[in-house]
Amino acid sequence: MNERRRIDAVAIVLVVGTLVSAWLGEGQPGTLPRALAAVVLLLALVKGTLVALDFMELKSAPPLWRRAVLGWLVGVVLLIVLAWS
Amino acid sequence: MTAPTSVALSVPSTAPPPPRLVGDLAIWLVILMELATFGLMFVGFAWARRSHPDVFAQGQAQLHLTAGTINTLLLVGGSWCVARALQALRHQHMAVGRVWLVAALATALAFLVLKSMEFRERFAQGIDLDTNVFWTLFLLLTGFHFLHVLVAAVLLALVLWHAGAARPGAFNLHGAETAGVFWHMVDLLWLVLFPLVYVMR
Questions:
Q1: Is residue B104 within 8 Å of residue A80, measured between CB atoms?
Q2: Residue-level pLDDT at B14
Q3: What pLDDT, in 10s, does the model give residues B31-77?
Q4: Residues 6 or more apart from B77 whose CB is under 8 A from it?
Q5: What's the CA gap between A12 and A8, in Å, rounded?
Q6: Which residue in B20, B29, B153 sits closest to B90, CA to CA?
Q7: What residues contact B71, with CB distance under 8 A and at least 6 apart?
Q8: Are B175 and A43 in contact (CB under 8 A)?
Q9: Contacts with B, A 28-57, CB within 8 Å
Q10: What is the C-alpha to C-alpha distance for residues A2 and A7, in angstroms, rounded to an integer?
């Protein structure tokens, strides 16, 4: 029961995060301002972390695997930020 | 988690279970390769955008944010269904697990249909891999991801079939977990692709 509730909670956060990202992108007629782009990427980071830890169940995996996937996520997002700035 | 039989064995209930990688080791090696490949493409897209701001601005302005958002919701919803399916299958609730798997397959199919329509619209406009650097990267990135959703859907369909055909107690949970982890990776990739390609313009 507890596990099911946790899965549902993660799914709700993923849906809300997606809608917020879309709303931030939709409201802008021209280029997305840097600050909003940062928020959108931060949301992607949070959503990706939740999928990795809870859905791929890396939170209970050997630490090296968890670090590899989360490290990939943070690294890719950082390189995108670098390309944008 | 709280199996009543463990009390008799005097196993301390507070001891955390040993670390476990869910799914087959082989799929995790595949996942590492996929993450590396898509990671390079994501970073390549971001840096090409920096070098050709006008081409990217023009291209990204033509993308349908709403379609991208619906596709994101479909994949996220699919991940929810897959997670709930595995949770049910682990407790041997086969019928419940199959319902969640059917729901997950429906999200995958809806994603594939919506994305096909987007591709068809582009091709009808005469856009192809040679149009310019934006459309080359867009079609490679989303096309490659499309193929991964297709593979993940086939894997889920196999799990669904097996969940119906296997004798009680003979269900291959390890295989189901392996397919599930692959699905979640496809979702994880899209969660980076969506803001990068559709939102940050």
A1: no
A2: 75
A3: 999 999 999 999 999 999 999 999 999 999 999 999 999 999 999 99
A4: A11, A15, B107
A5: 6
A6: B20
A7: B111, B114, B115, B190, B194
A8: no
A9: 31-32, 37, 40-41, 43-44, 47-48, 51-52, 54-57
A10: 9
Output B125-128 pairs: Cβ under 8 A, ≥24 positions apart: none
Rounded to two decimals, what is the model's pTM?
A: 0.92
Q: What is the pLDDT of residues B93-150, one digit of tens each?
A: 999 999 999 999 999 999 999 999 999 999 999 998 889 999 999 999 999 999 999 9
Find the residue in A nearest to B45 (Cα): A80
Give the nearest partner residue to B47 out of A7, A44, A83, using CB atoms.
Answer: A83
Phi, psi of B26, deg, nearest 5: -60, -40
From chain A, pick out residues whose CB is under 8 angstroms from the CB of B19: 60-63
Q: Dihedral sign, CA of A76, A80, A83, A85?
A: negative
Distance from the Cα of B24 to chain A's closest Cα (Å) equals 12
Q: Which pLDDT value is given to residue B195?
A: 94
Show the DSSP H helices in chain A as ranges.
Answer: 2-26, 34-50, 63-84
The conformation of residue B63, written as its DSSP 8-state character, comes to: S
Which whole number is the average pLDDT over B159-186?
Answer: 93
Question: What fold is seen in the domain B25-199?
Answer: Four Helix Bundle (Hemerythrin (Met), subunit A) (1.20.120)
Supply the DSSP string of B118-165, one letter for each residue: HHHHHHHTT--TTS-HHHHHHHHHHHHHHHHHHHHHHHHHHHHHHHHH
Q: In the predicted model, is pLDDT for residue B13 greater than 90?
A: no
Average pLDDT of the residues in B144-173: 93
Note the pLDDT tens digit of each residue in A22-78. Answer: 999 887 666 788 888 899 999 999 999 999 999 999 999 999 999 999 999 999 999
